[in-house]
Design a protein that fits this description.
Elements (H helix, E strand, L loop, with lengths): L5 E4 L9 H17 L2 E6 L9 H13 L9 E2 L4 H13 L3 E4 L3 H7 L20 H9 L5 E4 L1 H8 L3 E5 L5 E5 L9 E3 L7 H11 L4 E5 L5 H12 L5 E5 L19 H6 L4 H8 L8
Parallel strand pairs: 1-2, 2-3, 9-10
Antiparallel strand pairs: 4-5, 5-8, 6-7
Helix pairs in contact: 7-8
Amino acid sequence: MPSRPVLRFAPSPNGRLHLGHAYSALFTWSVAEALGGIALLRIEDIDAQRSKPEFDAAIIEDLHWLGLSWPQPVLRQSTRFEAYAEAAARLKEMGLLYPCFCTRRQVAERATGTDPDGAPLYPGTCRHLSAQQRADRLAKCHPYQWRLLTDKAHALTGPLAVTSFDIKGNLSELAADPEKWGDAVIVRKETPTSYHLSVTVDDAFQGVTHVTRGMDLYHATDLHRLLQALLGLPAPLYCHHRLVLDDGDIKLAKSRGSQSLADLRAAGWTAADVRQALGFGSPTSE
């Protein structure tokens, strides 16, 4: 175990950072300072189509502008595909992954509910294919992704719990319920991993002991605990902070064109203005 707490801020370089990212970064660094730990920067660029070098550089620029610093080198997930493939192979060897040939439209048409993110809940169509049906589709080079037999995996690990912490160091424990995700995608069609797999593998690889992230990822923690147990990885403590909302009480998002830190800077905002608006004081750094 690390000699002191290790935290991380892990944005994706698919757009400019906005106030929501600034809040998460400042929150992470403030918790690291309070716990006497360190905060790492990790670039989560597994999506090769949307990740851009200019956005990667902009993340560094924006965080430095906020007065933050971090140990080098910065880990970029695009350099870690072999590690993710090895983790996925272990799950396959355990008989816990199966190929899914369904399109998004087919999943949406057949779903009978939604997952915690509000997306159509996969009805398990391809888990019922015979070995011959799977072999035929693979031979015809149908695009596919790998899904987790979540109920089987959960039965294998037995009951799991997520341990949460707050800024004062108080701990609480809740039972994890990964099965609400259904058969989650672990390896995507276009990428040899998924967010769920890569973040689980990399938190362990970097020795992360405390995870701070937004409430939008609260339920994902249950699935991450399952993957940690299956892969024999340590379980960090978790703290999910509030989200920064717009005037319509909707979460800020790159996809919705939320005003970026660069836009605010061009409009005359200073880093101190951002900190004050988000409820943080003077800069801290490693």
